[in-house]
Design goal:
Blueprint: H1 8-16, H2 24-36, H3 41-57, H4 63-78, E1 92-97, H5 104-116, E2 122-126, H6 132-145, E3 148-150, H7 159-172, E4 177-181, H8 189-203, E5 209-217, H9 221-227, H10 229-234, E6 239-243, H11 253-261, E7 265-269, E8 277-279, H12 282-290
Parallel strand pairs: 1-4, 1-5, 2-3, 2-4, 5-6, 6-7
Antiparallel strand pairs: 7-8
């Protein structure tokens, strides 16, 4: 099977439009498709072993039945982790973290828009004060989403103080949810993690942190995960947000990232528009993956 620049579902439309009966070549093609889609060799092998056992036990001979079994197997694995956002506190404070370039600031604007559909009063805090462009970018997205924003009062203001002011305003003015943008890069990783720790400690003087969401760019696959390991290790991450899933050949990364990090995917972005961020539903996503 020649390597092609497919989306994952296109790859499987090709695969399942082939011969109707399962052959040795079927298994070879399926293995290539799974690895091409960035499941990773270990997870691909595990899924293949599971499918082989089921096919043999149930004496399945048709590829279309194998397709249903594959979708069920992927859905079951995706559903191992709970994608529920925990936002019961008032205000619910959400820290959004991730390396620069993954779409973190854009995601916050989309997330605020998504939450407003549930009649939530939202405020965002521009605590990525190390990048002047990040503050203006967040202000643009906050305006698009129609939500309030707290910006630094002067250039280079301490990020923790911006976060504190945001949460204080959320408390004083009865906001339901406060979403805090954070820096994605400093001079050293240690410095960045220390800064995030300080932001959290300052916030927790006012309110508990409900979620720490790590934004990952799905198109970078395993490389993006390696870049984000410091956040997972030090930032108290509670869930993942995957951006840029539209048209990606990295669909298998969705399952791979959960199993590798032991963290649930809570939100997925599949486009550039403000409405293109949704909650994560394993059943729906497994169906999209298989196509």
């Amino acid at each position: 099977m020649a390597e092609k620049s497919w989306s994952f579902s296109q790859a499987f439309r090709n695969f399942f439009s082939g011969p109707e009966l399962i052959t040795d070549e079927t298994w070879d093609d399926l293995e290539v498709a799974l690895i091409t889609a960035d499941f990773g060799p270990e997870i691909a092998e595990s899924i293949l072993d599971e499918l082989r056992e089921q096919v043999e036990r149930h004496r399945v001979t048709e590829v279309k039945e194998m397709r249903r079994m594959l979708q069920d197997a992927i859905e079951e694995r995706l559903a191992t982790f709970d994608p529920t956002l925990h936002l019961s506190e008032r205000p619910a404070v959400i820290l959004v973290v991730g390396v620069n370039g993954v779409g973190k600031t854009t995601t916050i604007g989309k997330f605020a828009n998504y939450l407003q559909a549930f009649d939530k009063k939202i405020i965002v805090g521009a605590a990525d004060t190390f990048r002047a462009a990040a503050v203006e970018q967040l202000a643009t997205w906050a305006d698009r989403a129609g939500v309030a924003i707290v910006k630094p009062q002067q250039q280079g203001q301490d990020p923790a103080s911006v976060a504190f002011q945001t949460v204080q305003k959320a408390i004083d003015e009865s906001y339901d949810i406060a979403i805090i943008d954070t820096a994605g890069r400093l001079q050293t990783k240690g410095g960045l993690m220390d800064e995030l720790g300080k932001v959290r400690r300052v916030i927790e003087k006012l309110a508990p942190v409900s979620e720490v969401l790590l934004v990952l760019d799905a198109t970078t696959g395993q490389n993006g995960l390696a870049q984000a390991e410091a956040f997972i290790e030090h930032a108290g991450v509670t869930g993942l947000v995957l951006t840029k899933l539209d048209g990606s050949a990295k669909g298998g990364f969705v399952l791979s990232v959960q199993e590798n990090t032991k963290l649930p995917i809570k939100l997925v972005g599949q486009g550039e528009g403000i409405g293109d961020l949704t909650g994560f539903t394993p059943h729906v996503f497994a169906a999209q993956l298989i196509g």
